[in-house]
Amino acid sequence: MPEPEENLWLDDAAGRLVRPYTVSNGRTRPTADFNLLTMVRSTGTKPQSYLGPDHAQVLSLCDGPMTVAEIAAHVRLPAVVTKVLLSDLVDCGAVTTRAPMQMGADPTDRELLEAVLHGLRKRL
Question: What's the rounded Cα separation, in Å, for the pair 71 and 37?
Fold first, then answer.
């Protein structure tokens, strides 16, 4: 029985056999503006041209809203490589993005930060 295509690029001992920069064709800058909390979702539009197995894997994760950080974790690629793949998908109309929602709290609110710190210490 032939080995599934997705397993051809993985080795149990060595991990991923293809270096991340080859996945993005050596590109290190996405054409779209993302941060790790940017929400990404599939538009339902299929890319007109073949983009590659990594693009297909990323696109398959975007059925529901997911952050760039979550996608990077699922595909086990550095965030910058994931952003390049996502920008390719944005450019061809296969995914759409939305900036993370601001919760209205002041990120430098000392009381809020102390409450978070207290909660973290309590869990340890």
Answer: 10
